[in-house]
Amino acid sequence: MNTHLNLNHINQQTVLTVYAHADDEVLPAAGTLRLMSQAGWNVHCLILTEGNLSSSLVKGTRHQEAEDAGKIIGATYEFYALEECNFSTQAVIKVVEEAIKNSHPDLIITHAPQPEKYGHRDHEVCAIAVSNVATRRNIPLWYSAPPVFLRGFEPNFFVDITSVIEEKIAAIGCYESETNKTFMQLDAILVLSRFWARELGQKEGYFEAFEISRQWVDASFFTALAQSKNKLKNSMVF
After folding, report:
1. pLDDT for 53
2. Which listed site, 58, 80, 197, 231, has its alpha carbon 20 to 30 Å from 136?
3. Structural domain for 105, as ranges
4. What is the SS3 assignment for 209?
5. Element (H, E) at 76
6. What is the CATH number of the domain that holds 46?
């Protein structure tokens, strides 16, 4: 198994995302998931809760909104009904273990661990539980950027989503019940995507940021890297 993310040449692989609430998956990673889907990955999103404790006045629509977003980014969804703000790490571990048996993921993406005083309690518990499972099962793991609070998040992997920024915006827009939140607004989405571009010194484009917690590559990764560099050198010869 080679988990190097080559979005142009890739065998059939599966990415499993695990998030506390529906919409947590598209805010930080819709563009990346869309690119992976386009490249032939199976994209499976696991949502732990119903989202009924949201401050939104609209209730009971999150499942359909998620399914609509999935059509845009090329993902399938699986929903659980853990009790918001009250589920345990053990409950999440059990759910994730079951999902791994069913989907056999090559990569897992989840919330970045953040102390509760900076972020959402559910995000923190989810991150701890998923990290536990990924470590024990030796599965590559990426943490996605928090939508608001960046304290403690140290990205070391960035994905250029410029080609699919419209799909990202559309996927987030599917969550109409959550549009009252400031970080769901178009300007906030674009500003954060441009922020990550500027972190890389890019004057143009839109990016998503991740922190690689665990990842491994086999020898073919280095062969492919060497070949890509040779092709680049050859293309620059006049």
Report:
1. 63
2. 80
3. 14-235
4. strand
5. strand 75-79
6. 3.40.50.10320
